[in-house]
Amino acid sequence: MTSRWTLYLPVAALVALILTFGRDLPSYIVVLVSVLLAGAVLAAVHHAEVVAHRVGEPYGSLILAVAVTIIEVALIVTLMVSGGEKAQSLARDTVFAAVMITCNGILGISLLVGALRRRIAVFNPEGTGSAFATVTAIATLSLVLPTFTTSSPGPQFTPAQLAFAAVVSLGLYLLFVAVQTRRHRDDFMPITTAGEVIEAEEHDDPPSSRAALQSLGLLLVALIAVVGLAKGVSPTIEAVVASAGLPQAVVGVVIALLVLLPETIAAVRAAARDRIQTSLNLALGSAMASIGLTIPAISVAMIWLDGPLLLGLGGTEMVLLVLTVAVGTLTIVPGRANILHGGLHLSLMAVFLFLAASP
Questions:
Q1: Which residues form the Sodium/calcium exchanger membrane region domain (predicted)?
Q2: pTM across the whole model
Q3: Residue 244 burial (CB < 10 Å; 0-12/13-18/19+)?
């Protein structure tokens, strides 16, 4: 059932956007706009969830991931437009943060909740493994290779390399979507501890077509509001990070945490209902969409954005990525996880957050 606040907040955020667009905002207005921005993000993912429930799994997880990625791309582009040279690495920092949050934070807490509820969290290793392999391939192509290419100085692609990486990333994402939704759909369906596929939720009827269409319209309104309001508060976000003496990469972490918080809640709720596969679909689908859709979108945006696009990770970040891939592979292969697996991934998440603030 749709709550009243999810109906009114997108409209309120859109009104705030109309009233504040292009103006210098005093601090108290920035606080109000920030609250509406966070509320619009929550409302957007709620309405995406309603639409997702209507269409069922695995389409539902796909809709949620794409909706979150649209918000992420909007925030990155608006901050890059106003950030100047400091924002040249913003896309890399945000995408890497999204990968760490999804593959360690969301995945870890989902496994932990599921294991605490049933002692063992059970999921389909075929579907989860293919999703994790795709995330690993796209992340390596987009975030690791730029550090080692030699055609241009610095951790960046040449325009031709960037275009090729964008096409390959988008192609791999679309190929995975085809596998997830058509050829091997059962590999991404929730399963019981006995390995039986759960076709639908047993306790909650899907929303009506009218409710789904209403949520679709409010989702579009919320996304428009998020894009516009983000531009208004972006100078304040950067000023707060600078005044606290934190690295510029923290801005990317803040963006990723903001847009992925509602999806984290959705994944934990699914894990609490013993739908671990749905939680993992959300986590890995978001990671994949974050790279496979964000990098192509930013590549197109670079046509009119000034300055280079720094994509290559540093040594510390690469170590964290390799460790995440190694631990994630060992977690996924058996198709069963206990609280230790969840704790390992949450520990890696904590290490990432600490090193982002104190490199």
A1: 29-181, 215-355
A2: 0.83
A3: exposed
